[in-house]
Amino acid sequence: MALGSERSASAQSGGSDAQPKDTHSHGEPSHLAAPAGRGVTRTITHTTYYTPIGESVGIITPASLHFMQSHSRLPDIDPAKYSLTIHGMVDRPLMFSLEDLKRLPSVSRIRFLECLGNSSPRRHVSKPGSTPVTVQYTHGIMSCNEWAGVPMSVLLKEVGVKKEASWLVAEGSDGSKYTYSIPLTKANDDVLVAYMQNGEPLRPEQGFPARMFVPGWGANHSVKWLRRIMLVDRPYMTWDQSVHHSVPRADLDSKSRWYNFVWPPKSVITRPSAGQQLRGPGYYEITGLAWSGWGKVRKVDVSVDGGRTWNEAKIQDPVLPMERRRGGAAIPLHRRSGRSSTDARGAESKLGPLRKRPFGAIQRDLPLERDSTLEGSP
Asked: How many other CB atoms sit within 10 Å of the CB of residue 345?
């Protein structure tokens, strides 16, 4: 009705070329739908937005609900002036504009991304009488998107990597010049310089115009607002890497520190979970997510009695490496068991059982009452 009125007014005024302003060009959710929202915490050094995984269905996180953690001011970068410099131990140091990157061969991959501090034991504790800590805050620094961009291997071929180079150092354009180093073998394997997320340009908080995306490893490796890559012959103990994300090496009496790389198998119950209400005794579908940096999740078991008995969850297709899998199991919950915690335990990969889950400064045991199985990356 309003559109018709605008057209009538335009015709009456003689403005045949005038068009009503399109306020929905990017799409709008229904005003009748209950919107899911990100939670947020702020400290002196961090601002963190949490994905509402307890309310999600499927595996893809909308870009607007993707988790975000910032260590400093977010840059405002004009894409027309953006450039990525690759130098160091290379034959031809080059500078790439955003348009240069888009002209090169591109790929897209559905992959999870998880902050190294996700699932910290500190987030699991509720004070007596307080509102329960929901799964959004305990496990919500993790999301899964379709990422698209240029394989790092393509860019490295363009510059010609010298044979003595074995690592690269990536630097962002944020206020702290966030810097991280990764092995060259990983960079040539599956790392992307991503400029698209779920079919649209990266959002500013996700690294617009371009970021490094390192599949299967902690999100701390995926440098946002990527501005510079330097090829080097050794790992660099950058400030961000050594202070925030390294762990003591027990084999050296904890006198030396090293990094965490591949994300271990992991799972979480998203429904029912803390803070959610059940209507009463009966059958409920217990649903959750499972993921691993090692490869494809093939099987997940679910327990509602602390691991005494287990039920195999039905895992949804498709089966893709390094994306999160959604699964569920219909299980009767009685009054007593309905109040107890539920667990989805993982897992064992082809590289052997993983019974430690390193989390940077946060390191704790991951008990395995029963092993699930994972298939390694193809």
From this structure: 20
What are 46-53's contacts with CB under 8 Å, separation 24+?
A: 46/70, 46/71, 48/115, 48/141, 49/205, 50/136, 50/137, 50/140, 50/141, 51/136, 51/140, 51/141, 51/142, 51/143, 52/136, 52/140, 53/135, 53/136, 53/139, 53/140, 53/142, 53/268, 53/270, 53/289
Number of helices (H) and strands (E), helices first, in the chain? 7, 28
Please identify which residue in the block is written with the tokens 């070329």: 17
Query: Looking at the structure, do residues 236 and 271 belong to the same domain, yes or no?
Result: no
Q: What is the pLDDT of residues 174-218, one digit of tens each?
A: 877 889 899 999 999 999 999 999 999 999 999 999 999 999 998
Q: How many CA atoms lie within 13 A of 239 on its CB side?
A: 5
Higher pLDDT, 344 or 300: 300
- Are residues 173 and 208 both part of a single domain? yes
CA distance 370 to 308: 10
The DSSP call for residue 24 is T
Residues 228 and 289 in one domain: no
Q: What is the pTM of this model?
A: 0.77
pLDDT of residue 259: 67
Q: Per-residue pLDDT for 274 more than 90?
A: no
Element (H or E) spanning 154, and its range? helix 152-159
